[in-house]
Amino acid sequence: MGLDATAMRLDVVTLAPEALKPLLDLGVIGRAFQSGIAELHTHNPRDFATDRYRKVDDEPYGGGAGMVLKPEPVFAAVEAIPVLPRRRVLLMSPQGAPLRQADLRRWAGGYDQLVLLCGHYEGFDERIRSLADEEVSIGDFVLTGGELPAAVVVNGVVRLLPGTVGTAASLEEESHSALLLEHPHYTRPAEFRGMAVPEVLRSGDHGAVARWRFEQQQQRTRERRPDLFARWQAQQEQQ
Predict the structure, then answer these.
(1) Which CATH number characterizes residue 108's domain?
(2) Are residues 124 and 189 in the same domain?
(3) Measuring CA to CA, how many Å separate 205 from each of 42, 195, 202, 211, 223?
(4) Mapping DSSP to helix (H, G, I), strand (E, B) and coil, where does residue 128 land?
(5) The pTM is what?
(6) Going by C-beta distance under 8 Å and a sequence separation of 6 or more, which residues neighbour residue 74?
(7) Which residues contact 33 (CB under 8 A, 6 or more apart)?
(8) DSSP label of 190
(9) Do 150 and 209 lie in a common domain?
């Protein structure tokens, strides 16, 4: 995949590059890569190891269970990546800041290149943190590596790039775009197994529909994500 100055460049440093390959064929995300909206590049630190065994991990200083990802091959992999003017380096880590929709929008709109660093084994040498501009977590749990979190970030960013999603307005109305969860959606038939589409959605009254949807957003957020609803209320009070 050649470098396209108009595309967003996504570089993933990973010991399991095959974990990212499915993104290239994944619906609108795959089409975005195929059409040149974005480019996905993977870089395996093992290719930058200097010993005959291509060793990328070692025992932790001070003892303890597990192996630790060595700094040398990771630094070498990152330093071999072409640098675009507007670049952000993200470290996938359960110790990072929780990923939010606002982060995806910020990265999609503010940068030409994202470099995503994936940990593995028991952890990574602390000095690897110095490569990153931000540390990102997708939840309070631990996985075997950072590949799935990296795939989440790539998916979330690419779908926000102009041209990926056919109807740009749909991106503005979805859950988390303004703290509130998205309102319910319905399509035909009007009734299915005793479950009917709300009458207001069939009324043709666009003002009433808008009010109903906004009320539903508030209700859903209050019931399902009271933390988000509290943040939304605080935001409203400041305006």
Answers:
(1) 3.40.1280.10
(2) no
(3) 50, 22, 8, 10, 27
(4) helix
(5) 0.88
(6) 13, 45, 56, 117, 124, 125, 128, 131
(7) 1, 23, 24, 39, 40, 158
(8) S
(9) no
- What is the spatial distance between Cα 43 and Cα 45, in angstroms, rounded to a whole number? 6
- Is residue 54 within 8 A of residue 15, CB to CB? The reply is no
**Phi-psi label, residue 179: left if phi above 0, alpha if psi -120 to 50, beta otherwise:** left
Q: At what angle do helices 27-34 and 147-158 cross, to 10 degrees?
A: 70
Residue 216 burial by CB count (10 A; 0-12/13-18/19+): exposed, middle or buried? middle
Ordered per-residue pLDDT tens for the chain, 239 residues: 444 458 999 999 999 999 999 999 999 999 999 999 999 999 999 999 999 999 999 999 999 889 999 999 999 999 999 999 999 999 999 999 999 999 999 999 999 999 999 998 888 999 999 999 999 999 999 999 999 999 999 999 999 999 999 665 556 655 566 889 999 999 999 999 999 999 999 999 999 999 999 999 999 999 999 999 999 999 999 98
The answer for residues whose C-beta is within 8 angstroms of residue 165's C-beta and 6 or more apart is 28, 159, 171
Q: Cα(36)–Cα(196) distance, rounded to whole angstroms?
A: 43
Output the six-digit token pair for 133.
């501009």
45 and 137 in a single domain? The answer is yes
Range of the domain at 119: 8-158
